[in-house]
Structure prediction request, 171 residues.
Amino acid sequence: MATLEGQTIASTYISLLKTSSNSPNLVSGSTTERIVLSPDADASDRTPIYVSQDRVGIGTASPNSLLSCHGATGAVVDINREDTSIVINDVLGAIQFGGDDPVDGTFTYGAYIRGVGDGTWGTDDTPGRLEFHTNNSTTAPSLAMVVKASGNVGIGTSAPAYTLEVTSSTA
Prediction:
């Protein structure tokens, strides 16, 4: 068994691919590895995944961030809940932002955005809302703003009754 200590996740993954098989879907380069995930060996019509140093590019050989997605007709990232019985308050997906606590090093979230079911889903009826959660203290992030299925926006309230409703507990 090969030891892969001291490598990044990307280089470890590439090393594992290189040592596990001579896959025609792995193309080695000097600084970029192209991995094409496909059910067949002829994957020329598939979008390649590029792994370069500590970055991953989907549709680009030069990722400019940890994850870069590029597409000719726009880059779309789908976050989907695989569930046929979605009801109100079910989380459909989220983007979470966090880091290590400077005092004890534990990982914590400072903010997140999530899509949530805003009612029971049925045929051609998929109510959803966006929630923005932020953290300004030592507790977990709390709801700061919501965009409801109705189009109403609430700041400081989870149930806006108007197009824009702002509620504050302080003067």
User: Anything to note?
Assistant: The helical segments are 9-20. The first helix runs from residue 9 to 20. The chain is about 5% helix and 35% strand.
